[in-house]
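CO-FOLDING WORKSHEET

Operator: S.A.
Ligand of interest: adenosine-5'-triphosphate
Run index: 314
Mode: holo prediction, single chain
Checklist:
[x] sequence pasted
[x] SMILES validated
[ ] output reviewed
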Amino acid sequence: MNSAAIEVSGLAKKFGDKVVLDGIDFDVPAGSVFSLLGPNGAGKTTTVNILTTLMNADAGTVRVAGHDIAAETKAVRAAIGVTGQFAAVDELLTGRENLQLMADLKRLGSGEAKRVVSGLLERFDLVESAGKQASTYSGGMRRKLDLAMTLVGNPSIIFLDEPTTGLDPRSRRTMWTIVRELVADGVTIFLTTQYLDEADQLADRVAVLHQGRLVASGTPDDLKRQVPGSHVRLRFADVAALDEAARVLTDAQRDDDGLALRVPSDGGTKSLRALLDRLDEHSVSAEEFSVHMPDLDDVFLALTGSNTTEVDAK
Ligand SMILES: Nc1ncnc2c1ncn2[C@@H]1O[C@H](COP(=O)(O)OP(=O)(O)OP(=O)(O)O)[C@@H](O)[C@H]1O
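OUTPUT RECEIVED:
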């Protein structure tokens, strides 16, 4: 499917005098992962709340699963699942009861509900703890249960608002695997995260929200190419080869200890080919050739002036 699962145009929202969203536009193709990044207070949760019909926008149009969020609220709600920062899990109920409750809310018949609940407990590796109260679950188990509850109605679009905040690396990886499986099944994921590596791992497209506007959007690699710092590192066999290469590549920085040159490059195939051709013309050969791209942290720093999304945390 190539259609847009989410279409946002001119979306604006302010609280009192504070402009949180100042007219933002983006599309999310069906079956892809879109990640919205931004410092604390940038308006990520506000965006999720509007897109999931929990909050009204001041201006703009939003279509989710082809339905206008203002005029066709019910149809939007039927198509989406939301896993929030504050989990919907009821601590006093067991894992199975929590899922059963969702199945009841979604009005599944008793036979289907039983099948769906057992299937989800198995898929999320919660069978053994299914009969235990959710209050006894670890953070990772609770997040898994929360996501499992979101999946009860088979939503085609899932909003994950900081799904792995506070999880240990292993639980984060489990969540990532689940997200990838969902996408493989054709589900569209709208993800907000504080972890840039998470966006890097999961997102097909990333957008950075800053001071009410989207200051950048594209694939993680597109964004990395936009910031300075990408370079090619060439390592040579001896000082003579290093000297010769340095004469050819006058814009390169020398690393005498490492017998290496650092050549600024956007990392694209065209410039890499040009670089190799230049070396070839002068019969210089390198022992090692590696391309270094900035990571999303560098992108974030360049675009918003803070080096991680957590910088402004109170
Ligand atoms: N209901 C509200 N009334 C007034 N101000 C609000 C309300 N909800 C959010 N805000 C303000 O709007 C701004 C954006 O908040 P939002 O929660 O959307 O940011 P965020 O990017 O999700 O931040 P975080 O990463 O901390 O979750 C903040 O300055 C917040 O204080």
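REVIEW:
The pocket of adenosine-5'-triphosphate is lined by residues 15, 20, 38, 40-46 (CB under 6 Å).
DSSP finds eleven helices and 14 strands in the chain.
[x] output reviewed
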